[in-house]
Structures are given as C-alpha cells and as structure tokens.
Design a protein that fits this description.
The protein has 76 residues and is mainly β. It has one domain (2-70): SH3 type barrels (Roll). It contains one helix and five strands, in the order αβββββ. It has one helix at residues 2-11; strands at 16-21, 26-34, 40-47, 54-61, 66-70. It has a five-stranded antiparallel sheet, with no helix packed on it. Strand 3 and strand 4 form a beta hairpin. The radius of gyration is 12 Å and the shape is globular.
C-alpha cells in the first residue's frame, strides 16, 4: 500500500494539489516534494478556505496535519 501511495504522489509532482488540514483549512499549491511521513513541500501555495484566496508562497507542511489530498484528474 505504501508503495502505491508513493508512486501516486511521484506521478503528481509539479501538479496542483488541493489539501484539507486538521484545522479545517484548505490549501492549494504545486506539489514539489514529499517524504514517507507525508511532509509536503508546495510552491505557489494558497489558503483557499475563504472566498478570497490568500497567497502563502513556498511552504513545508508537516504530514500529520494533512487529512486529505486531492490529486488532479488524468485525462488520458
């Protein structure tokens, strides 16, 4: 199972992902890197919880704060 998740995440590097965090915040950004603990590095990150997105820039997000990761649809 861990290998499948790792492969899925690798295939979506440099793509926009949507995250839901424990504190009910929603973030969107370009997935640049991740590790086995699901610590994520995002570029051009935005807080999209409110109707007006707040730009955050490049961020490192600790994996235990992540509840959900929405990956882009592949239209192949």
């Amino acid at each position: 199972m861990a290998d499948e998740i790792s492969t899925l995440m690798k295939n979506n590097r440099d793509k926009v992902v949507l995250l839901r965090l424990r504190n009910k915040t929603s973030l969107q950004g370009i997935l640049k890197d991740f590790d086995i603990h699901m610590n994520l590095t995002l570029e051009d990150a935005e807080d999209v919880t409110e109707s007006t997105p707040k730009k955050l820039g490049k961020i490192l997000l600790r994996g235990d704060n992540v509840l959900l990761i929405s990956l882009p649809n592949d239209k192949k």
